[in-house]
Design a protein that fits this description.
This protein has 433 residues and is an all-alpha fold. The chain contains 21 helices and no strands. 84% of the residues lie in helices and 0% in strands. α2 packs parallel to α21 and α7 packs across α18. The relative contact order is 0.15.
């Protein structure tokens, strides 16, 4: 039986084929050289046998060896092709029965390797999750997979340029927003911002912005006061009123900047009340949903969704092809995290193994007949030369051992026959007395 060494399995297919061809040529040459050696021995023994009768044993061995070698050469060659190109009946057995061989191989694999009990039993022993965990956590594996996966991002991004895809994304985003209840989301955002003090900080920024706006536009404020004033009011009085108004508003804003001002407590209380209403008040919840529906129905919302996807597209393109390569980096981190998760969580590992087993079993077993037919079709459509080459690369080396063994065994059998003949010849006169 032909065996492939682990080192040979580790070689790429082209290098493995080169190594197999080299070994086949070596064994074929060895068998041929052995036949030539027997022929030389036979000729030499035949020439010198009259002088040294004992060489008869050597001649008999060599003669039978040549017969055995030629017979086994014919058998080996006839299995794959016509000997010497002569279409002798019952030769080139494999090419003539290529279709039947393909059907037999397909049926054998279908019935013996892909049968439901065999597949189920084998899948129970395969640790898919453990294999992936070891692969993903091995140095460099996650990075290589991430780089290879990032190359597919650019072709996927190109799809976003099509109008039909943009319409689909826009509609899918809108439907997703419609399906999401707005009240719980708003409650979560408001609670987070309130607890972090971000709402108060936002209000403080608005106060600062309002004060800066008043300072920048104080001339405009005076002009507006003058425009709204009566014609008979002196200009100096309008300016004084505008100054008082500006000073009063800025003073109020200055008071609001005081960290101990009461408005902060009132503001937080108003936020808490709003959160409570959005949590338990059906009217407030319904009002939030109506507001969401009005916003989604506005034409500007569709434009905003399109702009959002354009930004995502540009950022993904930059991350997939730019110097920072954040897409590949993000994929690498995700793969490493997933590998570590599989390695440390037995429940997740068992879940992945069960899912993998069910997926393989539900995919392979129902289609085992198609797989067998596919294998049979591939073999059936191979050219004779291709089929012969594939068989020779796999078992040709062992076929040459048949020639070598035939040479040696034939020689031993011929020697035994010769010895028996000599014994019978020597014993005949004794028996006739």
């Amino acid at each position: 039986m032909t065996t492939i060494e682990p080192a040979a399995l580790a070689l790429p297919p082209p290098e493995r084929a080169v190594r197999q061809r080299r070994e086949l040529r070596r064994m074929r040459g060895l068998a041929t050289l052995l036949l030539l050696a027997m022929a030389i021995v036979f000729v030499a023994a035949s020439l010198f046998e009259p002088r040294w009768p004992e060489l008869g044993y050597v001649r008999a061995f060599a003669e039978a060896s040549m017969v055995g070698a030629c017979a086994d050469w014919f058998a080996v060659v006839a299995l794959l092709r016509h000997p010497l190109g002569i279409p002798i009946p019952h030769t080139a057995i494999v090419p003539r029965n290529k279709a039947r061989i393909g059907d037999t191989i397909g049926a054998f694999i279908c019935n013996n390797f892909l049968a439901p009990p065999v597949v189920a039993a084998r899948l129970q022993t395969i640790d898919v999750a453990g294999w992936w965990a070891r692969r993903l956590t091995a140095p460099g594996t996650a990075a290589a997979l991430a780089r290879g996966s990032a190359e597919f991002v650019v072709p996927l991004i190109e799809l976003l340029d099509h109008d039909s895809v943009r319409r689909f994304l826009r509609e899918a985003t809108r439907r997703g927003l419609e399906a999401a209840p707005v009240a719980p989301i708003a409650v979560g955002v408001l609670a987070l911002l309130r607890n972090n003090g971000q709402l108060v900080a936002l209000a403080e920024r608005l106060i600062e912005y309002a004060d800066d706006a008043l300072v920048r536009n104080q001339d405009l404020l005076r002009d507006k006061v003058s425009e709204q004033s009566s014609w008979w009011v002196p200009k100096w009085l309008d300016e004084k009123i505008a100054h008082r108004l500006l000073t009063g508003v800025r003073g109020t804003l200055s008071d609001l900047r005081d960290p101990d001002h009461a408005w902060r407590g009132h503001f937080n209380g108003w936020v808490d009340a709003l959160i409570e209403r959005l949590t338990s008040d059906p009217a407030a919840i319904a009002a939030a949903e109506r507001l969401k529906a009005e916003l989604l129905a506005h034409p500007a919302m569709a434009d905003g969704i399109d702009r959002l996807w354009r930004v995502i597209e540009a950022r993904l393109r930059e991350g997939a092809t730019g110097e920072d390569g954040f897409v590949a980096l993000g994929l690498e981190r995700a793969l490493l995290a997933f590998g570590g998760w599989l390695e440390t969580d037995p429940a997740v590992r068992a879940l992945v193994n069960r899912w993998s087993a069910r997926t393989i079993e539900s995919t392979v077993v129902p289609h085992r007949s198609e797989i067998g037919n596919f294998i049979a079709g591939v073999v059936r459509h191979w050219e004779d030369r291709t089929l012969i080459e594939k068989i020779e690369l796999q078992v040709g080396k062992d076929l040459q051992y048949i020639r070598i063994n035939g040479t040696l065994v034939g020689g031993l059998v011929g020697l035994l026959i010769y010895v028996a003949t000599r014994l019978a010849t020597d014993l005949t006169p004794l028996l006739q007395r």
